[in-house]
Amino acid sequence: MISRGIQANKRLTGYLLFLPVLLFLLAIFIFPLTVIIKQSLFQIEISTQTEQFVGLQNYITIFKDSLFHTSLKNAFVFTITTIIAHMAIGWVVALMLSRSWPVEGLRSLFKSIILIPWIFSAPAAALIFKILYHPQGFLNYFTMSLFNTRVGFLSDPKIALFSVLAINAWKDFVMYMILILGGLQRIPDSLFEAAKLDGCTGIQSFRYVTLPMMKYLTMILILIDFVTTINHFDLIWVMTKGGPLRSTYLPGFLIYEKGIQRFDLGYATSLSMIMVLIVIVVMGLYILMSKESEEHV
C-alpha cells in the first residue's frame, strides 16, 4: 500500500510538472487553431466588422481556384527537391567531416567554410543571389565567357524555381549536416571494427552499419525539412514574388495576397487549414510507411 501511494504521488508530481507545458501549448497552438477553424467557416467583412456563416464554401472556392493548384504543385516540387538536396549534401559533407584527414588543420578550415551559409538570413541570401543571378551579374558573365549565352535564372519560368531552390539548399543544408554529423559520431567504433573483422568493405559497412543506425534520425530530419519547406515564404518572396508567370508561386503567397492585401480572411484561413491538414496527412503517411517497412525487415 505504501509503495502504491509513493507511485501515485510520483505520477501526480509528473502531471503537475507537465501542466505548465500543456497550458503553454494550449495558449500558443490549440487556441489559435480553433480560432482559425472558426474563421474558415465564415465570410468576414473587415470594413463593417461583420461575419456571415458560409460553411464549407471557402474550401470549395479554394479547390476550384486554378491558382491554388499551381501554388500547390510548385510547393511539392520545391519541397521534395529541397529535401533531396538537403539530405544528399548534408550526408556527403557529414561523411567527409566524420573521417580523419591527413592535415587536421584543413579539416578545421573546411568546417569553418561550410558553416558560412548558415550565417545569412533568408532575405540577405536572396539579395546576394539576386545580384549574382542578374543578367549582367557574375554567373551570366561566366556563362557568356564559356557558352556565349545568358541564362535567365529568375526570368525564365522553366528554371526560376530551381534557381531559388539552389539557394535554399545552399543556405539551409548546414543544419542537417551538423545533425547528421552528430549522429555519425555517436555510432560506436566497435560496430565498424566488428564489420571489418567480418570482411565488410567500406560500402558494406555504410550499408549495414551506418544507414541502420542513422535511420530514425534521417526520418526525423526529413519530417522537419518537409514541415519547414512546404510553407516557405521569405526567400522566394524577396527574389521573385512568385514570378515569372507564377512559376515560383507558393501557397504562402496566396494566403498573404488574400488575407493581407485583399482582406479576404475567410479564404486565407481556409487555405491555412488546408496546408495544416496536408502537413498532418503527409507526416502520418510517412510515419506509417516507415513502420511498415520496419516490420518487413
Strand order of the largest sheet: 1-2
CATH superfamily of the domain at 66-263: MetI-like
Q: Tell me the Rg in angstroms.
A: 25 Å
Q: What structural class should be given to the helix and strand makeup? A: mainly alpha
Report the average pLDDT across residues.
87
Residues in helices, as a percent range: over 70%
Overview of the structural elements:
The protein is mostly helical. The longest helix has 38 residues, at 2-39. It is built from 13 helices and two strands; from the N terminus they run αββαααααααααααα. α3 runs antiparallel to α10 (202-230) and α3 packs across α12 (251-261). The protein has a two-stranded antiparallel ribbon. It has a domain at 66-263: MetI-like fold, CATH 1.10.3720. A hairpin with a 4-residue loop joins β1 (42-45) and β2.
Comma- or semicolon-separated keywords:
single chain; MetI-like fold; 77% helix; 13 helices; mainly alpha; flat
Topology (SSEs and partners):
Blueprint: H1 2-39, E1 42-45, E2 50-53, H2 57-64, H3 66-98, H4 104-114, H5 116-119, H6 122-133, H7 138-147, H8 160-185, H9 189-197, H10 202-230, H11 234-239, H12 251-261, H13 265-296
Antiparallel strand pairs: 1-2
Helix pairs in contact: 2-13, 3-8, 3-10, 3-12, 6-8, 8-10, 9-10, 10-13, 12-13
